[in-house]
Amino acid sequence: MTRHRGFALLGALVAVVALVCGVIMAGYGLLDSGSRANAGGSGADGSGDPRTRGRTPVGTAAPASADNWTGTWAAAPAGAEPGAPVGYPGRSIRNVVHTSIGGTSVRITLSNLYSPAPLLIGGASVAVGEGGGGPEAVAGTMRQLSFGRRASVTIPPGGQIVSDPVALRVPYDGDLLVTLHTPRAGGPVTYHRHALQTSYLADGDRTRDLDASAYTPSRRVWRYLTAVDVLNREARGAVVAFGDSITDGVGSGYEANRRWPDVLAARLRDQHIGVLNEGIGGNRVLSDASSQRNGASGLDRFRRDVLDRAGAKVVVIDLGINDILRGRETDPARITAGLRELAQRAKARGLRVIGSTLTPFGAHRGYNALTESVRDRVNEEIRSGRVFDEVVDFDKAVRDPYAPDRIRPVYDSGDGLHPSDAGYRVMGRYLSLRLVEDRAPAQL
């Protein structure tokens, strides 16, 4: 009897082991088929090739996992850099960017959006910066980047490319150095004009340099680089700040990372939520301003700069002032209709949408009774809940209680339109974390 029971027990254990192995193999099969599905296809937008599509598609607002990429930094391409009609042939460009969250691996996105000519990247690298906005790298952190396992890559006119991932311990709230070598002339440089952060140039291929001896300060812009993503087991996704110069941080201090999205990033760091700043100075909801280096319209760039961002779960939309001040739009219904369309697109992709009221500009040269009337009516519609499901009242946060059409003097950078560091700090703290952290699905 004892021997029979032993055989029975052994048989049962074998059956259990076989069942577990079957489940594991099935799981691998599902993962493999999912990978093939993501790698396949050849849509018109190039989404079938992970090396040429804009971002890894984000079809749902499901929580990020160890297998998902999450954005830690981003900057929207705003136009073609003046004074660089053929790029920087024979030189190395070192962009300094500041992370919101860290990770164990990193990848970058490069854009040639505003060039009619192909762009040859002869080599690229990423390293942890020493800090303070300088071009010095921390010893032991320099990593060479590849593209489809090749050290060089050509980005077609109007295209963009994602690098292969590379293992690197990326810090939270730290500097990264992304260096590109462009060996020959290309077309105009796709850039972000209001970086508030110095970039650096060097002669020759200096992508592997740790020290700064070969580099000289250049303009406060970001060139070609539009996104940095990390792998982070604890990441819960990313918040995308989508707006104009007030989101871009114009009026804030240089090399300081004090824009309102930076303040929000500091508040969300312990929750392992990335924050991506997709503001463009001078940007509008309705009309293209690329020729002024203020970017495509919000409606045109929303997919590229929000929906296709890695790990995007929430979008905060603060856009519309420039439609009034620069686009001379006098019909508030057209602006709110455009904002409503952005919100609907985001919700259709499973993103939570938070919309902002338009901040005061009563001391700005563009102020008059008509422009103020349009702003007031846009804000009235936003506060009613008929544009966005959730609202952050940035107008209320920074306005002067004694002159509501103006920014409170202590929050004014000096031009009557853009907040100071103090104003951006108030805005970054005013946004309720409940709206960002709430895990309930968006209402479709």
From TrEMBL:
GO molecular function, one term: hydrolase activity
Residue spans crossing the bilayer: 7-31
Pfam families xref list: Lipase_GDSL_2 (PF13472)
Keyword Transmembrane helix annotated: yes
Keyword terms: Hydrolase, Membrane, Transmembrane, Transmembrane helix
Region (Disordered): 39-66
Record-linked Gene3D superfamilies: SGNH hydrolase (3.40.50.1110)
Domain SGNH hydrolase-type esterase: 241-426
InterPro entries xref list: GDSL_Rv0518-like (IPR053140), SGNH_hydro (IPR013830), SGNH_hydro_sf (IPR036514)
PANTHER family given in the database record: GDSL-LIKE LIPASE/ACYLHYDROLASE, PUTATIVE (AFU_ORTHOLOGUE AFUA_2G00820)-RELATED, GDSL-LIKE LIPASE_ACYLHYDROLASE, PUTATIVE (AFU_ORTHOLOGUE AFUA_2G00820)-RELATED
Protein name, as recorded: SGNH hydrolase
Organism in which the protein naturally occurs: Streptomyces scopuliridis RB72
